[in-house]
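User: What would this chain look like folded?
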Amino acid sequence: MKVILTGSTGFIGREVLSQCLANPAITSIVALSRRDLPPHEKLKVALIDDFMTYPNSIKNQIRDAEACIWTLGKAHIPDDDIARRVSLDYTLAAAQLFHETCQKPFRFIYCSGAAAERDQTKSLWFMQEYRRIRGQVENELLRFVNDHPGFETIIIRPAMVLARDMSLRSLVFSLGPSVKLDDLGRAMLDLALKGGEKNIWENSDIRHVR
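Assistant: Here's the prediction, encoded as structure tokens.
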């Protein structure tokens, strides 16, 4: 399978890229990135300045891709306008691009978060706008699926993501809902390869993905 990756220089994206490179079922990877990545025979890096517009050179590189694992914008962004652009606008622009350009069926694996709130009218006690934006992205992606046959979205909602080499600090965090980084990467890769029986995978579901 040929896959598209975003966020490959980030905490989660690096793990996804590493697992894709090691998995023989992944034959080719196109990383949409603002920065270059270490060379690998399976990897092509498509350098991009603006995730709202894609030149023909990038469209040609992704034309035969069958899935995308999207981890761009996972970190909290204090500026709400920038957060909305990165989390919502970039994601929906890419979904439209993949639907118009790539093979069908096409799987879009979107890394959301356990605190995302799809009810845009609900009162929230912490990180209100960030959680609403994440929930709005989920709502828009699910609407996109309904309107675009052949496009499949799987939303995965990790809680606290723990590094493989857990420090004392991460051990404290692990007392609450959490998921190991390698388990999260494995789950997203498996869903990209095989699909899933539902659209939204909660943190508790991730460890059961094989």
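The chain has a mean pLDDT of 88. If you want, I can go into more detail on any region.
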